[in-house]
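seq:
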Amino acid sequence: MQKRVRAWATVGVTAAGVLAGGAGLGAMGLMGEQPAKADAKAPVSAAWKVDSVHSNVVYRITHLGASSHYGLFFNPTGTLDLDPANAAGASMEITVPLSGLSSGDAKRDQHLKSPDFFSTEEFPTISFKSTGFKSAGEGAFDVTGDLTMLGKTKPVTAHLTVVGRGKGMGGDEVMGVEATFTIRRSDWGMTKYVKEGALGDEVKLIAALETHRK
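struct:
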């Protein structure tokens, strides 16, 4: 166990690194083309599809009660149906493949995919399906829904904000959103290192999603 705990101590992904990495991926995907100026205040309506290449989910967890460790889940898929004028009718579904997990260390990635944590061979995805939207200010919403992980489904609440809007390379409408969840992993049966204090129970998930109008 000491070796595994020491592996966690080598935090390969920092908050700045995650943000910089995401920006770099976005720049590569755009091939240097400057997008149209986004306007978060513009009307947002109808159905949108998640662009997996330009989206990811960031996780944050405390290590040894002293520092924050960040990692990424790549290639989420899903849809968003959002109209601020009728938030009650909005909906969101996201599926995150755990094959795209990256903690910044290959050995730690394998440990995270093992039965100690995500048990990815048996449970290859995490998913969220909304049950309700409530306006929380301009371009912001409180979203209730069900999060399924390790074969268990539990109710959660996320805070979603519209980051901005623009035009894609093909002229299609693009909208970016961020949904922030705070969960206790033990609620889904993931308890490894919680009692020992090596890893926190509380986990923050930030789904940074670029969506295109369907």
